[in-house]
Hints:
The protein is 36% helix and 36% strand. The chain has a 6-stranded mixed β-sheet with strand order 2-1-6-5-4-3. The protein has one domain (2-180): Roll (Nuclear Transport Factor 2, Chain: A). The mean pLDDT is 89. The chain has helices at residues 2-41, 44-49, 80-87, 169-180, and strands at residues 56-59, 76-78, 96-109, 112-124, 133-147, 150-165. By secondary structure, the protein is of the alpha+beta class.
Amino acid sequence: MKKVISSLLMMFAMTSCLMSRNDEKVEIIQTINSIGFYADMGDWDKVAEQFHRDGVVIDYTSYKNASAGTKEAGGTLLTPEQVVAAWQTVLPGYEHTRHVQSNHMVEVDGKKATAVSSIHATHVLPNEQGEDYWIFLGDYYHELVKTKDGWKVTLKRANMRSQLGNPDLPAMATEVVKSRNK
């Protein structure tokens, strides 16, 4: 009987450890997915909450026309508020955006984690100068740390693999935002 109880306790401990690790991965995926979801919804406070309060490195150097983090190789350290301010210069200019991430690969090492995911980001803006859509296809690489407030992003790298539609749409969306702010 002691062997049965001992075996059951060991199985419970192992299952609990695996569940805890999977829970961590779910929280990490939720954090990185929340960035695009809340950006699409225009909930900028929620976007900022996903980043570490001490700053986040944004590296969009694979896409030279990005509005944030492309000034130097390896990205730029920005506050969450600076990231949001940069994205607000272009994203609200679209009629619609949808950032869909999939194929998440997450590695957890204590209070640090890395995550890679595929990104399919659709941007829509009716215009008379070409296609009404621009689609960014590639992958995101994130580094995160666990804080008392949950997992927070410290690095976000976008790797553009290809694009579809009108590559001038981001510049057009930026002009829309500028015209609204006059």
